[in-house]
Amino acid sequence: MHVLLLRDPYGFAGVDHCLSFAVGKAVRVADTGEALTYLVANAEQLWHTDDVHLFKLGDVGFMWDIPRPGLQTF
């Protein structure tokens, strides 16, 4: 038996799933830039620096950070 702890089980289904879950309707974004644009337009921004943003969308918290090498898939 293997036990795998998941820090972000919703995240494994993808960004569209997470945003859709938060707002209760289908959301589609093409890339990380569009995800940030969607969050800025539709969520409450709680905090940000130049690179990192924290949002509240519905009852769900989101953190957006500049994509780093190794995170090419979306």
Overview of the molecule:
With 74 residues, this protein is of the alpha+beta class. It has one domain. The protein has two helices and three strands. The longest helix is centred in the middle third of the chain and has 11 residues, at 32-42. It starts with 14 loop residues before the first helix and ends in a 10-residue tail after the last strand.
What keyword list fits this structure?
alpha+beta, 27% helix, three-stranded antiparallel beta sheet, 74 residues, 2 helices
Strand content: 15-25%
Instruction: Please tell me how large the radius of gyration is.
Output: 13 Å
Count of β-strands: 3
| Count of separate structural domains | 1
Low-confidence stretches: none
Total number of helices: 2
Main beta sheet: 3 strands, antiparallel
Give the overall form.
globular
Estimated helix fraction = 25-40%
Order of neighbouring strands in the sheet with most strands? 1-2-3
Straight-line distance between termini: 30 Å
List SSEs in N-to-C order.
Answer: HHEEE
Secondary structure category: alpha+beta
Overall residue-averaged pLDDT value: 85
